[in-house]
Amino acid sequence: MAYPSLYRAKVAQTNGTSATVYVPQVFGETPVVVRDSIGALPSTPGMGWVFFQAGNPEFPVWVGVQPGGGGGDGADEVWIGSDDPLNPTIELWYDSDAASIGTGTSYVHNQSTPAALWTITHNLEFFPAGVTVIDSAGANVEGDVTHINAQQLTILFSGAFTGKAYLS
Question: CA-to-CA distance for 58 and 115, rounded, in angstroms?
Fold first, then answer.
């Protein structure tokens, strides 16, 4: 499964050459070690962002908080500039407190009752592009996602089960 987005992450430990981070939308409660970064790796525990080279979860890249420029207060903004000389104006800004982003950047749904149709009210104020479902045994499960509105979606599966859905 590919992970093409930018994901909110929390640094648990850092030693200058790597950081142990939690990326709940991708790995749940399992930490991952990050060695690559845009800018410097974090020097202290805290919040930031991770993306994956070519969407591959085996190659996480840390992106720290960048000051100002995205339209918010600068406290939680991330900017990634282009390395593409043919398209030097391509850039990505992400600001979790900007009005257009909504109330959050991710949501974890816990389905504790077995069901083939999961109705998820996430209140993210946007249509999550990333929807990953993990069953109670830890396996990835594919389902048909239908966005009801910017606060709710459903996922239809071939059979009933319990697990978690990670939305971002």
Answer: 31
